[in-house]
Amino acid sequence: MGMTFPPGANEETPMFVISVAAQLSGLHAQTLRSYDRLGLVSPGRTQAGGRRYSLRDIALLREVQRLSQEEGVNLAGIKRIIDLENQVDALRGKVQELTEELAAAHAAAEAAAAQVHASYRRDLVPVRQETALVVWKPDRKRR
Fold it and tell me: Where are the annotated coiled coils located (predicted)?
């Protein structure tokens, strides 16, 4: 939305009252209340219980409206889509976390291997390795 945030705020900071959120999303305030009851969009709450919508909530409201009006998806289907998208986002975050953890473990193993190699004694002498075939023929005369 190209907006400047107050210090400490971001797109997830609840800041819009329901009337402003309704205007920004192009929906009626009662529709926003219904979506909240259905669990489609869960705005933040003030201590007194008033709803406060973030920019992310408003984007989600617009997506709910688009799915409903343009794609013909019912509200139960939209809830399922939102839940699955949230699950995918969580899984992507977990994959990223595990990838970083694996990279750190790999780097630690490489450092440990380098330390072991650095500790090798330098006074060892390399030995030439050859393979020889010796054929032994016993002396048959001794029997």
Answer: 81-115
